[in-house]
TrEMBL record:
GO molecular function, one term: phosphofructokinase activity
Keyword Transferase tagged: yes
Top-level taxon of origin: Bacteria
Keyword Transferase listed: yes
UniProt GO cellular component terms: cytosol
Ranges for domain Carbohydrate kinase PfkB: 2-75
Name used for this protein in its record: Putative 1-phosphofructokinase
SUPFAM superfamilies cross-referenced by the UniProt entry: Ribokinase-like (SSF53613)
UniProt keyword annotations, A-Z: Kinase, Transferase
Organism: Haemophilus pittmaniae HK 85
A Pfam family recorded for this sequence: PfkB
Length: 95
């Protein structure tokens, strides 16, 4: 199960752990329209690429954070995500 909490991050709950992603604070929010859809798109991308869950959640968080910083749609160049992705904090709670 994946829970999105907006600017407060997201959680991925599986049988073995809770993975928490906290995106960096976005100083230039243009619009939050489509942020959730962008997160879902990032999740689908990560799952389709076979990325580990923590990496997938971090990528989805970066895509969503990128989405709120622009008025247009989509990510025309994935290198634009790199500085955001580098600042997504991932915590894994085993159990």
């Amino acid at each position: 199960m994946i829970i999105s909490m907006g600017a407060n991050g997201s959680l991925w709950l599986n049988d073995h752990a809770v993975i928490q992603a906290q995106p960096p604070k976005c100083e230039n929010v243009v619009s939050t329209v489509g942020a959730g859809d962008s997160m879902v798109a990032g999740l689908i991308y990560g799952i389709e690429k076979g990325l580990p869950q923590a990496e997938t959640l971090a990528f989805a968080s970066a895509v969503s954070a990128f989405a709120v910083s622009q008025s247009n749609v989509g990510v025309s160049d994935t290198s634009l995500l790199e500085p955001i992705l580098a600042n997504v904090k991932i915590s894994v709670i085993e159990g």
